[in-house]
Amino acid sequence: MLSIDGSIGEGGGQILRSSTTISALTGIPIEVSNIRANRKDSGLKQQHVKTIQLLSEIFNICTENVKLGAQWIKFNSTMKEKPDTESKFQNNTLTMDIGTAGSIPLLIQSIIPAIAISKRDLKIRLTGGTDVKHSPTIDYVRYVLRDAFLRIGIVFDLDVQKRGYYPKGQGIVDVEIKKVSEDLHSIDFCNFKETEPSIISTASNLPRHVPERQIEYAITTLEKKGIKHFKHKSGLENSSSPGSSILIYSSSESGIYLGSDSIGEKGIKAETIGYNAAARFISNYESRACIDPNLADMLVLPLSFVKGTSRFKVSEVTRHLVTNLDLIKVIIDISYKIEKIAEKEYIVTVTGNPII
């Protein structure tokens, strides 16, 4: 059993998500200790528990100590007889309720590549948080991650039935994941081209002027830097708790996938929420990045199973990214390189190891 120290690098939940996803795909048994040791509320949160339980059910994996606050877990696919999972879930929709406002986007960030790469079709209905702090928004997943994954050969679609904000959550998202039909594709997203971003601003149980103010200030902030937007949309949606979010994004077949989102918070003006999203987008855009820092972290796991070498350009190299690359290298022996080519311009190269 491979031992993984959850306190390495940035020491957060990404170590847990990546290691359990790779274990599910490869059958390599793992034990993760010191889970989220670098967080003030260390140990498993509800969202992590549900992610592991969902992977366990789908891949018929035996787990130990998967409970709230746990500092270690064991995840061992060799301890159960493999069922006929293709027939087990055929034409069915698997359901999972996180039970809190725990992040649906972070959960499906693990589930989607695991299902697709293992060559299965599956529909899942998830209940929890769609737009919460310390997580990409569901719109980011729908409009940025989906298109970027498609270029690798991972196909999924999602339908937001209901938004879920803190504290109640109770958002509902239907996800349909398609099995990879052929080999995964390498990518080369290094040639920046100017694009016109799109903007989506939403709110629930709040006055209509809230999402409109978010979007208006985002547009003003972008235009001050000479960045014209392609289209925008604001609206009100159903939810159990009041909340809002905004996403500014570019998605282009030329290999430009930039997303910047921001979550509304009590006591913070809608104009500030719009400004924050625009400022982060501008930072990546002016650095001529092709991939935003959050997306870079999400891409390296599926790219690790690609036959061949992939490259992408980012404006910064985050601890999340380096930690994820180092972790994957330990488990399945990929190789990677990070080159600084200019101020705030880095090329990340990943050579995969398609062992499944």
Strand content: 25-35%
N-to-C span: 18 Å
Shape descriptor reads globular
Number of helices, where a helix is a run of at least 4 consecutive DSSP H or I residues: 9
At the fold tier of CATH, the topology name of one domain is UDP-n-acetylglucosamine1-carboxyvinyl-transferase, Chain
Largest sheet: 4 strands, mixed
CATH superfamily of one domain: RNA 3'-terminal phosphate cyclase domain
Summed over residues and divided by their number, the pLDDT gives a mean of 93
SSE series: EHEHEEHEHEHEEEEHEEEHHEHEE
Identify the strand order in the major beta sheet. Answer: 1-2-4-3
Alpha carbon gyration radius: 20 Å
Label this structure with key terms.
UDP-n-acetylglucosamine1-carboxyvinyl-transferase, Chain, globular, alpha/beta, Ribosomal Protein S8, Chain: A, domain 1, Dihydrodipicolinate Reductase, domain 2, 9 helices, 356 residues, 4-stranded mixed sheet
